[in-house]
Amino acid sequence: MQAKETVFADLMQGRTQQFQVPLYQRTYSWSEKQLVQLWNDILEQVELLDSGASASTHFLGSVVLAPSPQNEVTFPRWLVVDGQQRLTTLSLALVAMRDHIAERRPDEAERIDEEYLINKRKRGDEYLRLLPTQADRSQFAARIRGVHAEQTAGDRVASAYRFFRRKLVEADEQVSAQDVLRIEQAITSRLTLVVVIAERGDNVHRIFESLNNTGLKLSQADLLRNYLFMRLPTRGEHVYETYWLPLQASLSNDELEQLMWLQLVLDGDDRVRRQDLYTAQQKRFECGEMDAARTEADIEAYVKELHRRSAHFRKVIHPAEEAVPSIRGHLSRLHDWQAVVTYPALMLLLDRRARGELDDHETARALSFVESFLVRRTVCRVPTNNLNRIFQSVPAQLPRDVPVADGLRQILSADNRLWPDDEELREKIRSAPFYQYGRPNQRRLVLQRLEESYGHPEPVDFGAAQLTIEHVMPQSPGDEWMRMLGEDVAEGESPEDLHARLQHTLGNLTLTGVNAELSNHPFERKQALLHGSHLEMNRRIAATERWGSAEILARADDLADRAIRLWPAPLSGVGRAERSRDWGLAHQVLAALPHGTWTSYGDLAAYVGSGAQAVGNHLAKTDGVANAYRVLNADGKVAEGFQWAGQDGGDVRVRLGADGIRFTATGAADPAQRLTSGDLALLIVDAEGEDEEEAREAAGMGEVAREETGRKGVETRAARFFRQLAADDTPETVAAVRELMAGWERLGGWIGHGAGEVMTSAFLMLGSAGDPGKGIWPIVLYPGSGRGGVAEVVFQHLAKREPFTERSLRAELLDRINELKDVSLPQGKLELRPNFRLSALEDERSRELLLQTLGWFKERWGERG
To answer: What is the pLDDT of residue 60?
Structure first.
């Protein structure tokens, strides 16, 4: 190979020639981010030209060329093995410049055209000096020829052209036309390229592979496309136009890569990882010696099969395209569940249906097993960490001697699949804190499906209704609620324990669009509102005289009956071990207790879905449970008659003190160091996904936010926040919060408001409002729910954001916040989300200290590098 440094002018200028982008190359993909960087580099070179400085040129990158099979002595043609993004971008910049000066300087516009863009005496595709891949060709040719072409959504060629036209107009407002030609000079002679020219006979595919498979330049789909079309020398154009272009038009690059991976899985490779797609498929094609014609036929068959299966894949990711209602319903729910892990099984079922191996009824029945498997595991709090492996193995493990639907049910019923049976499902619906497990969308879907089971003659349009989950017995109960709970408590249980045990269970949850009105009111007030609901489950709740322990459990039993009918059970006798209560969750969370924290029997019971007495009995009889002695009574005292299980650990209070537990004058553990069931739920759950969802909500990116800001008379999120704050806090606290927000904005932050109606929020945000996922927020403000508003310090979120992954920085933030009057956040909550009352901000000195702390926080984030 030959390599030399050159510039765009020397590469393209003057000669009749053509640079062809092969079919295997990905489409043009530069976004505005790359275009802005290039434009800044160009303007920097223009400044150097104007100043007469002899500074070095700007290195743009490499271009790898190889002789085209269509090469002619009188008309050289080159394959662009690498560098098409750079060549396409520079060509589009010059097209935009030509059109920009065409009316004022037609001679210069013609010169640019003939020197860099066209082969004047050629016709058809040969007219273009740069010939992009077919997917980009029509848009690029339209720009070169100066004709209008219909633009498809997201077309990068047209977007790049418009970008340069816009930038040239901006430049023209400041400089003369002659200076605009300086931009041409910078583009064509100040941006250097290293051109590598392969000799005829060099393995161009290997060159391309080595350049692009060592980094993140190309996706696995890009690399595999290159491999395929490099091996279709005679059938490439036909395969590309017949199968590949329609495939590429119907799926995004990421979806196409996913389909390629699924095809490997469906063919029985149950261990291939998506990031190894290219290598795995390459090995399949090269597993035996074949002649060129046979290889070409195999690759064409592969692309044809990929095209066929794309129709199934589109129904998986766009369920509305499925014509059969029962199948469409299951696919829609699985799509809304975000059940990407199930795709191998879904594709298998749709593929077998297309082959005639099962009819529509059997397909729907098989899909019901997939849906049930996910729902039952979620309700019963089975960890999700093995779901990928379970569903990826389905195509390879499906029995050949039984019908497809029955075979799938048999696979999922195996003992290591942990598909809960009816008994376990019923028990968990009664006792497990459903609200604290799974994703919010999944919890809503379970309740939605249960509501649909009532068969109401006027069913709710769940797509249009903005329904949220409501706790009938509220999370922050008032005195009336607590008095009623006092009538229902079991021996040794307090009303607080009973509330903690039942509040998040499925029997106490419903869907409503009037959360704000329901709030924390007594049940009698809620009854009237629920009675007028369109949801059958709400009308049934309203028909109940009271709402205590017995009523919640009775509703749980009714919902369990419905759940058992809706979501089929696993097969018995497939080697499935019967499961007793899983205490593993309790052991895990106790092992994760941070230094300086304790929890109560009631809190732990509420977290695992048990009773306080059962928790106490288990810990007393089970040796080796980490931190079991840090489970205390609700008042923070060691249980009467406490004994060590196993080896004697000495005086419990001494051990607690060594673990950082402080004691009050009455001998009780410091209540500030207590972890509630909600705190426990945060300890071993990765909340990153919900973190990002929170950020997007706070940025006001959703449809609700756009509607609120775009329609007159609609309450904005900010107005809702202050209305809710004023309903529960003093005017002095409201004024103090306004001052804090104003001070934060003066520091360069911005305020994002959550979409909640019962509990809206205000995020103190740093970073771009357009990309909240890359931002950061130290504190979230919440209006009160009968007890006054709070400021939540999101250490859990910060632990995933540089530089606050360093515990010492989070500890310093905690120490600074603890300087506020009447604020004392325990060190043990540095991985959690502790809060303090917003009323603390009424103190002027505390407000000043908090703003100083926020300034410190902003500086630390700015130093993250």
So the answer is: 85
The DSSP secondary-structure symbol of 115 reads: I
CB 334 within 8 A of CB 378: no
Which pLDDT value is given to residue 725?
Answer: 87
Closest CA to 552 of 431, 460, 658: 431
Looking at residue 425, what is its pLDDT?
Answer: 95
The predicted structure's pLDDT at residue 760: 81
Q: Which residue stretches of 567-634 are H helix?
A: 584-591, 601-608, 612-621
CA-CA-CA-CA dihedral for 743, 746, 748, 754, to nearest 10: 50
Q: φ, ψ for residue 616 (rounded to 5)?
A: -60, -45
Q: Kindly state the tokens that stand for 293.
A: 């014609």
φ and ψ at 469, to 5 degrees?
A: -80, 130
Q: Tell me the CA distances in angstroms from 568 to 202, 335, 341, 616, one per residue in order.
A: 60, 19, 20, 34
Residues 677/606, Cβ–Cβ less than 8 Å: yes
Tokens in use for 255? 């979806």
Read off the pLDDT of residues 306-329 as tens digits, 9 standing for 90 and up: 999 999 999 999 999 999 999 999
Long-range contacts at 125-128 (CB < 8 A, ≥ 24 apart) = 126/18, 126/75, 128/18
Picking from 519, 562, 526, the residue whose alpha carbon sits closest to that of residue 545 is 526
Given this model, what pLDDT does residue 709 score? Answer: 44
| CA-based nearest residue to 23, from 217, 267, 228 | 228
Among all chains, which residue has been given the structure tokens 């007030």?
A: 525
Q: CA torsion angle for 10, 14, 20, 26 (degrees, to 10)?
A: 60
User: Checking phi first, is residue 482 left (phi over 0); if not, alpha (psi -120 to 50) or beta?
Assistant: alpha
Helix axes 84-101, 177-189, angle to 10 degrees: 160
Distances (CA, A) of 846 to 110, 814, 841, 853: 70, 14, 6, 10
- Name all domains of the chain by residue range, CATH numbers in brackets: 2-217 (no CATH), 222-316 (no CATH), 318-419 (no CATH), 424-566 (no CATH), 584-682 (1.10.10.10), 688-862 (no CATH)
Q: Is 483 exposed, middle or buried (0-12, 13-18, 19+ CB in 10 A)?
A: exposed
- The Cα 781–Cα 835 span in angstroms is 9
Report pLDDT for 224.
82
Rounded to an integer, what distance in angstroms lies between the CA atom of residue 695 and that of residue 688? 11
Beta carbons of 609 and 556 less than 8 angstroms apart = no
Q: What is the pLDDT of residue 714?
A: 64
Q: How far is CA 803 from each of CA 495, 682, 797, 807, 835, rounded to the nearest angstrom?
A: 43, 21, 12, 9, 22
Q: What is the pLDDT of residue 688?
A: 40
Q: How far apart are the first and last CA of the chain?
A: 40
Regions of the chain with pLDDT less than 50: 153-154, 175-178, 214-216, 289, 575-581, 686-690, 692, 696, 698-699, 701-711
DSSP string, 11-62: HHSSS--EEEPPTTSPPP---HHHHHHHHHHHHHHHHHHHHT--PPPEEEEE
Q: How far apart are CA 494 and CA 602, in angstroms?
A: 9
786 Rama class: left (phi>0) / alpha (psi -120 to 50) / beta: left
